[in-house]
Amino acid sequence: MRRLLLGLGLTAMAAAPLGAQGYRLRLDTRYESVSFRGVDIDSVPAASVVNTSGAGPTTADGFAVDCSGGNYCYFFRPGARQHGQPLSTHADLTLWGLGVPGLTIRASGRAITDLTANSVWAGTEPHLLLMEGYAEYAVPRVLARAGRQIVTGRLGYQGFDGGLAAVKLGRTGLDVTAYGGWGLGRATALPVTSPALNPLDDFQPRDRQLVAGADLAFRHRWVDLRGEYRREVDPSVHYFVSERAAATADVHVAPRLRVSGGAEYDLAAGWWGSAEASINYIGQKFYLSAEGKRYRPFFDLWTIWGAFSPVPYRSVRGSGGFEPVTGLWIRGQAERYWFDNAEVSSPLVTRFEDRGWRGGLTAVATVDPQWTLEGGYRVEFGPGASSRSLDGGVTFRPSERLSLAAHGGSLDRPLEFRFSDAKVSWVSGSANVRVSDRLRLVSDAGWYGDKRRRPDAAGFDLNQVRVSTRVVMSFGSNADRLPPARRAP
Questions:
Q1: Which end of the chain has fewer CB atoms < 10 Å from its terminal CB, N or C?
Q2: Which pTM was predicted?
Q3: Are 257 and 276 in contact (CB under 8 A)?
Q4: pLDDT (tens digit, 9 = 90+) per residue, 467-476?
Q5: Which of 376, 382, 351, 347 is nearest to 362 (CA)?
Q6: CB atoms within 10 A of CB 447
Q7: DSSP assignment of 268-320
Q8: Which of 79, 68, 55, 73 is nearest to 419 (CA)?
């Protein structure tokens, strides 16, 4: 299947400039140079460890060590500076007007590598990746696809190699969609059996899961309702990888007032998943929003994480914004959250935190058509940790073809149950140049200072410097236009 899809994409790219009546090819190439601190693991004999009163075991030169009862104790020391030069190109191709009304071919892929000899940059394997590649047939009431594709919804992102069909049932407002095929890994365009996912080790499945799902949507004036069902099965043992159902509702009670909500149920685990409900009001110079939420992490049954019985948390959140004077928007939000009872025994801990809160305030001022100023402050206090950040920026647009921006900020992150606190500061600048309707250049550079506050010798910095250049090009017949409109499934 994968070779077939790759062949389909390559054939489409080769045929586009020759025989297709309409095509659009978009190339997005990015080069980045990154310099960051390396870290080396080291060890010393347990007999040579120095035990200092109130400071714990350390090496003779002051590094805190971890001794787990063996003959050696381990610690981290600063390593040599590392340099990475990732180069990536994303290609997005669409073909239409192929002699069959309603037939479209789409392909999207990525090529990436690290130009340095030691390839220190993560995520450069595999070098070639087909993200989507399918043939689509669409007429006013029917849509069908075959190939590698992605479906999204309340149940999240799901990629698969297979087929999809969507039907609009007359004037009832009902849309029915069904799909199935060989699944891809969670949040990636790779099968879960890919060698690039080898860190899963012994828990990695031997065969790709089979995916099947169906969606039912109802739309009528002010009402939008949707139901989803999705299941994944391990073909080698015929056991469920996952099975879930979800429902969402979005109702426009009035032209400016909207109420929405949704919930998930995990049939395989036998419990309710995440759910939320919100109410939103949008005025001429202000908006208000209130939300109640329950969040529960979801894990496939083949992973080990489900054995830890993930504890959900609940929250209430309010947000809003207003424009006191023309061109100035002030936005704020605040959230209070708390975790459910973990139902575990901790005799040595008599008091612990199971709740927290977070909030933020931002302001964006459009001084004139050329200058925009922005700034924000965010704070969070939760179980075992807290954070406070302050950031700001300025954007200058001297013309429609040029945009210059500078940003900076600082983040403090005290950690109650760890040995070090971190403070990160950053400064960055960027330039966006639209050379023509078919060519755009983007360059940016940034310095990120990560300082570790520790009482031992391991308080070394983890600073980074990043410089990148991006080139976006469009080709084809009517390359500045989208292909003919179609109804989304």
A1: N
A2: 0.84
A3: no
A4: 999 999 999 8
A5: 376
A6: 16
A7: TTTEEEEEEEEEEEE-SSEEEEEEEEEE-----TTSSGGGG-PPPEEEEEEEE
A8: 55
